[in-house]
């Protein structure tokens, strides 16, 4: 079993990535399904409001904090190379940084930015809404799975 700072880092990794897995999962199975049930103009307006709210500290601290924790875990693991849990700690960091943070940057945020440029009731917004929902949710599933797998990897480092 890992000890010392690795124990603290692994527990922090489990908590941070597990929390984000829950957030992403809730979006996929609850929020996006609810928005899909609305008329397109209302769905676009609601998602734009959610995207604006996500830029506030409450979410950004959790999301960015999880990424920062993963970076710290990866760097400390590379520098100190512990006797146990090395692979699990590096895999957990890689999964979250690529599969959650990276996917957010390259897939979800560009879609959010494009949606924010549309007037909610415009013909273009109504036309693009179904595609946005499908693509955004698909990538969000990836984020949820990557975050859950990262939490599992960190948890495995503890045993």
From TrEMBL:
Transmembrane segments: 6-30, 58-81, 87-109, 142-158
Keywords tagged on the record: Membrane, Transmembrane, Transmembrane helix
Transmembrane among keywords: yes
Protein name per its UniProtKB record: DUF1772 domain-containing protein
